[in-house]
Amino acid sequence: MAAVLEVEIGGPVERDVEEVDLSRLSPEERWRVEHARMHAKHRGHEAMHAEMVLILIATLVVAQLLLVQWKQRHPRSYNMVTLFQMWVVPLYFTAKLHWWRFLVIWVLFSTVTAFVTFRATRKPLVQTTPRLVYKWFLLIYKISYATGIVGYMAVMFTLFGLNLLFRIKPEDAMDFGVSLLFYGLYYGVLERDFAEMCADYMASTIGFYSASGMPTKHLSDSVCAVCGQQIFVDVNEEGIIENTYRLSCNHVFHEFCIRGWCIVGKKQTCPYCKEKVDLKRMFSNPWERPHVMYGQLLDWLRYLVAWQPVIIGLVQGINYILGLE
């Protein structure tokens, strides 16, 4: 069988690989035949390939410039379209490839998130809604963080061959690690964008925050601008008793609320005066700082998840119109 697979790349084909019956080959031999067919198909098309690479580079540069301008001039519409694409584009590919496990998780996440988002956008805002929103998205954030770490470790263990200690095949171990890494990063990116949208709606409804312009209410020292509840509660009053945190601008918030605002809601300014928050001071514990770096990584990945498939599809359309294959 090995003699059938003898092909010289760049030279004459000794045996016609097109006549090989792939059903009779092992997976490794089938891959070698398909690899040889690909080289035979594209032999002599070097100039066309160079042109396709130039089209790809030019499209990436132009698309990046347009996206940056769109984000700067119309951030609200940019964020909404990006969120919609991150939510829908993977759904299309997973439905096409019949990845039912991902679809089940996607439906569960979308159902709960839709309910939470609905609560966050209602007017008047129920007093318990801000905490419900931050608790849900903080839970998803922690799960995605842990899932991504486990997936990354599984990939590293496989690359170093440690999977053999547990008698696990390399392809199975790598599939497991990559799948967990994908789940962690994808839902991490998605929940942060939903959380940011909900945080904007809730803060604007409460009145102590305005994305552009001045707040509609004056902030009292005894009120948390994130949830709108009293910070200090008397003995005979009903309210939430918890730790508080004072920013460098001297505004005081519930610690849970301001952490949710900065990490989950992707806000790095004071909810009231918009002074920049010192995240290093807020997360002085070294064990908490990876959460900040993980959040920054998710912000960078959202471009790849949302816009990279669109750009690649645009490049393929240009190549098709120009007759490039």
TrEMBL record:
GO terms for MF: ubiquitin protein ligase activity; zinc ion binding
Keywords, ordered alphabetically: Membrane, Metal-binding, Transmembrane, Transmembrane helix, Zinc, Zinc-finger
Gene Ontology BP terms: ERAD pathway
PROSITE patterns xref list: ZF_RING_2
RING-type domain mapped to chain residues: 224-274
Chief location: membrane
Topology within the bilayer: Multi-pass membrane protein
Keyword Zinc in record: yes
Gene Ontology CC: endoplasmic reticulum membrane; Golgi membrane
Subcellular location: Membrane
Tree of life domain: Eukaryota
Transmembrane segments: 52-70, 77-93, 99-118, 139-161
UniProt name for this protein: Ankyrin repeat and MYND domain-containing protein 2
Species in which this protein is naturally found: Platysternon megacephalum (big-headed turtle)
